[in-house]
Design goal:
Blueprint: H1 3-20, E1 35-49, E2 52-54, E3 57-59, E4 65-68, E5 71-73, E6 83-93, E7 99-109, E8 113-120, E9 126-129, E10 132-135, E11 141-142, E12 160-169, E13 172-181, E14 192-197, E15 199-202, E16 207-210, E17 213-216, E18 221-222, H2 230-233, E19 237-247, E20 255-264, E21 272-286, E22 289-292, E23 295-298, E24 304-306, E25 318-326, E26 329-331, E27 334-337
Parallel strand pairs: 1-21, 4-7, 10-13, 11-13, 17-20, 18-20, 23-26, 24-27
Antiparallel strand pairs: 1-2, 1-6, 2-3, 4-5, 6-7, 8-9, 8-12, 8-14, 9-10, 12-13, 14-19, 15-16, 16-17, 19-20, 21-22, 21-25, 22-23, 25-26, 25-27
Length: about 350
């Protein structure tokens, strides 16, 4: 992807996000049993189909605008396990607060990693792709595009994979979906993609690292990135597109990528009446205050906690968080340990 195509992608995404930010207006059904609409943002894996189930909840998709890997898509492009972001409208009863229907307005899917397999653990529990360690769990969806749906059948140095999952730490990803992509290495260049936490940002060299991947961004389009100071970039969760990958990064599994596009991961909105986010804690700022990726979460004395206690929230904890999004911060009404 060259600089112009990177800018084109940004223009398409900007239009998509503008549509996503158009929240619903309240509607009353009259009387005690009246209904109202609530705007919501959901970031979690697909758990099933009928319409689309995300984190166990069904979202109607009859009129949903979808973007799949930066292109207009449809439900047929989606697979169980893919991490998606949904802007939706919840229809609720005023008297009981019961959710009667969830309607997806927009749905966005982007790969967590797309790259050539570097290595496969002998027991199939891990892959190395673009300098990232990818953990395969019993709940990871292994697509039928992989021979026998078995990662041990993947060929390092040849097979291009798309991976969706949770960023759990520096260069660490827990996969929720793994699929094999078809391309001709002699005539095609992959659209390399990686999502991860920046470290070792070097302003003068215009490089940073994600796991064992060194990213050279000197010619890349930087979208919504903060000022180029180490303290502002290090620890930031970003998405990176690249056009060229070679050996030479940090460590034995190190690789180097020339970036075409870099932007911070987020929810696409600063405010929403309700949010539902599933992910791993990447920073803890104090009791009851933490972040999942770039999303800051605040709890209070009224926050319901299931499966643990607030004192159990540490870096690496797998959580599902619910609550309103205000000025980019989730004010948690409920926290569930997964």
């Amino acid at each position: 992807m060259n600089r112009t195509s990177g800018q084109n992608v940004l223009a398409i995404l900007a239009l998509f996000l503008a549509l996503a930010s158009c929240g619903p207006s309240p509607q009353a059904g009259g009387g005690i049993g009246g209904t109202g609409n609530t705007a919501t943002v959901v970031s979690a894996p697909i758990t099933g189909f009928g319409s689309v189930f995300v984190s166990g909840d069904e979202y109607e998709t009859g009129h949903t605008s979808m973007m799949v890997d930066r292109k207009p898509g449809s439900q047929s492009d989606l697979k169980k396990g893919m991490m998606v972001r949904v802007n939706a409208t919840l229809t609720k009863r005023y008297d009981t607060n019961e959710t009667l229907e969830r309607t997806a307005n927009t749905l966005l899917y982007e790969d967590t990693i797309e790259g050539v397999v570097q290595s496969v653990a002998s027991d199939g529990s891990r892959l190395m792709v673009l300098g990232q360690t990818v953990t395969i769990t019993p709940t990871t969806t292994l697509d039928t595009s992989i021979p026998g749906s078995n990662v041990l059948r993947l060929v390092p140095g040849r097979d291009l994979v798309e991976i969706s999952g949770f960023v759990t730490g520096d260069g660490m990803i827990t996969a929720t979906f793994v699929g094999l992509k078809t391309f001709d290495m002699k005539t095609e260049t992959p659209d390399y993609q990686v999502k991860g936490l920046i470290k070792n940002h070097k302003v003068t060299q215009k490089t940073f690292e994600i796991g064992a991947l060194t990213v050279d961004y000197r010619d890349a389009v930087l979208n919504d990135m903060p000022g180029q100071l180490n303290e502002l970039w290090d620890g930031l969760l970003v998405d990176v597109d690249g056009k060229q990958v070679s050996s030479g990064g940090a460590g034995l599994s190190g690789v180097r990528m020339t970036a075409t596009l870099v932007w911070p991961e987020g929810l696409g909105s600063e405010d929403s009446e309700y949010t539902n986010i599933e992910g791993f804690v990447t920073q803890v700022f104090g009791p009851g205050e933490f972040s999942i990726g770039n999303v800051r979460v605040l709890t209070n004395a009224d926050t319901m906690v299931e499966g643990g206690a607030l004192s159990d929230i540490k870096v690496g904890a797998h959580l599902e968080v619910h609550g309103p999004l205000i000025a980019g911060i989730v004010n948690a009404t409920k926290v569930e340990f997964e």
